[in-house]
Amino acid sequence: MNRIRELRAKREMKQSELGEMLNVSRTAISNYEAEIREIDAPTIRQLCEIFGCTSDYLLGISGAPVSSISNEDALVLDAYHAAPDEIRGIVDHALAPYRKDAGASIPSTA
In the chain, which residue ranges form alpha helices assigned H by DSSP? Predict the structure, then answer.
């Protein structure tokens, strides 16, 4: 499932208008919406820029049109997951008082 038709309709945009923006025909847009034609990665990227959404949302993988965390937060999360267990344990312990679920126990990383 993709959401091109839904996103286009919200902006009151015709298939031909979107086609012009992507440099493809109205028929190509119709085929993308009907999932008759595969959408290549560069076109997905352009659609996401046009509609201000993530590719996961555009392709029906996610229910959220935009990521719920910032790029900076995502980098911190990536660093946390890449860190050795010992470091993650230290971070978990340091952040425990600030967690929304402060009453929950912190999983062991050992």
Answer: 4-10, 15-22, 26-33, 41-51, 55-58, 71-82, 85-95
In 3D space, the residue among 79, 90, 61 whose CA is nearest the CA of residue 3 turns out to be 61
Domains in the chain, please, with CATH?
A: 4-58 (1.10.260.40), 69-110 (no CATH)
Mean pLDDT by runs of 10 across the 110 residues of the chain is: 89 95 96 94 94 88 68 81 91 88 53
Residue 22 CB neighbour total at 10 angstroms:
17
For residue 96, give the amino acid letter: A
Is there a contact between 23 and 50 (Cβ–Cβ < 8 Å)? no
- Residue 81: count other Cβ atoms within 10 Å of its Cβ: 8
